[in-house]
Amino acid sequence: MSSVLTNGALFTALIATIAAQLLKVLLILITERRLALDRMLETGGMPSSHTAAVTALATALGLKFGWGSAQFAIAAVFGSIVMYDATGIRRAAGVQAELLNDLVEELGHLFDEGFQPQALKTLLGHTYPQVLVGALVGISTALIVAF
Questions:
Q1: Strand, coil or helix: what is 112?
Q2: Residue 7 CB-half CA count within 13 A
Q3: Where are the alpha helices (DSSP H) in the chain?
Q4: CB count, 10 Å around CB of 133?
Q5: What is the pTM of this model?
Q6: What long-range pairs does 23-27 form, CB within 8 A, spacing at least 24?
Q7: Residue 77 burial by CB count (10 A; 0-12/13-18/19+): exposed, middle or buried?
Q8: How far apart are CA 15 and CA 79, in angstroms?
Q9: 30 to each of 39, 52, 78, 126, 127, how far by Cα in Å?
Q10: pLDDT tens digit sequence for 49-96
């Protein structure tokens, strides 16, 4: 158990995730002038914390074991899948959820009286800029922790 607690790459990924989630709260505070602490535990939005985590992990492993190492290769492939999923499948699911929510609102008069459908979560995936900023947060975090 103690080796998990002293795992520098894992620690770096965790710090990058927290930094990205804090940035979400800060950006909402600046742009909307409201404190949205609930965003700390939600997915989607600027920047991508999943991307920050996987790029921090890959960068930390690349710095420690070398850019040609198996450890870096595994983290880089894993990270690219996470980023592809965030901008592709999860983003598409969010767009579909928005459409379904609009349809339910528009056609609400057709539902049985008393039926209150719960709105689907729409902030699921990320745009390319959100993933890019997440990657910059992750790489920066790894470089700061390493040096």
A1: coil
A2: 11
A3: 2-5, 8-32, 49-65, 70-87, 89-106, 128-146
A4: 20
A5: 0.80
A6: 23/47, 23/137, 24/49
A7: exposed
A8: 16
A9: 14, 21, 33, 20, 20
A10: 999 999 999 999 999 999 999 999 999 999 999 998 888 777 777 777
